[in-house]
């Protein structure tokens, strides 16, 4: 499962109790603390679902991003034979 799909499922589960089955409840207000990749994604998906979302962080969104790639995590190396 990709991280994007996981975050969408997580957001839908979190918002399902807010929206109810029919979605006829008044518009809920949610405060998301932390504007990292997870906080921004959850805020985005909740807003797409019709929730009034406020996103806060101690600095501006993405300010603590390292800029380093984690693509090496899935790197594969040839097997060493002796």
Structural description of this entry:
The chain has 82 residues and is of the alpha+beta class. It has a domain at 1-15 and 28-62. It has helices at 3-19, 37-48, and strands at 29-33, 52-56. The chain has a two-stranded parallel sheet with strand order 1-2. Helix 2 links the parallel strand 1 (29-33) and strand 2 (52-56). Helix 1 (3-19) packs across helix 2. The longest helix has 17 residues, at 3-19.
| Structure class | alpha+beta
In spatial order, strands of the major sheet run 1-2
**Major pleated sheet:** 2 strands, parallel
What's the number of helices? Answer: 2
Overall, the morphology is elongated
Bin the strand percentage.
5-15%
Overall radius of gyration:
18 Å
Helix content: 25-40%
Order of helices and strands: HEHE
Q: Ends: how far apart?
A: 36 Å
Task: Tell how many strands the DSSP assignment holds.
Answer: 2
- Low-confidence residue ranges: none
Summarize model confidence as the mean pLDDT. 73
